[in-house]
Amino acid sequence: MGFQGVDICPSSFERIPQVIQVLTAEQVDEVDEVDEVDEVDEVEKLLEKKLLEKIKENNEVQNVFHSIEE
Q1: What percent of the chain is modeled with pLDDT above 70?
Q2: How far apart are CA 26 and CA 29, in angstroms?
Q3: Total of domains in the chain
Q4: What is the pLDDT of residue 53?
Q5: Residue partners of 64: CB distance under 8 A and separation at least 6
Q6: pLDDT tens digits, residue range 8-46?
Q7: Is residue 22 part of a domain?
Q8: Residue 47: domain span
Q9: Is residue 49 over pLDDT 80?
Q10: Whole-angstrom Cα distance, residue 59 to residue 48?
């Protein structure tokens, strides 16, 4: 029994992708080739930039706070 006779139940949610991207063997090889630190940093920066753009384009997002240099 919880506070003032009210049962407290934990809640959570799980995000299930609606679209699953399957990589071709060529794309997998390309990802595997990115093994140098400079290349990895550049890929991460590109992905971060794309993610920020997508978030900012979403009409339901009101504010975007981040520490990524643009």
Answers
A1: 74
A2: 5
A3: 1
A4: 85
A5: 52, 55, 56
A6: 888 887 778 788 878 788 877 777 666 555 666 777 888
A7: no
A8: 35-59
A9: yes
A10: 19
What's the pLDDT score for residue 21?
Answer: 78
Distance CA 67, CA 14 (A): 26
Stretch (H or E) spanning 27? helix 25-33
- 41 occurs within a structural domain: yes
Q: Which residues make Cβ contacts (< 8 Å) with residue 6, sequence separation at least 6?
A: none
The torsion of the CA quartet 21, 46, 16, 11, rounded to 10 degrees, works out to 170
Reading the block at residue 21, the tokens are 């991207």
Residue 14 falls inside a structural domain = no
pTM, rounded to two decimals? 0.39
Instruction: Please tell me the predicted confidence (pLDDT) of residue 43.
Output: 77
User: Long-range contacts: 43-52, Cβ < 8 Å, 24+?
Assistant: none
pLDDT tens digits for range 11-20: 887 778 788 8
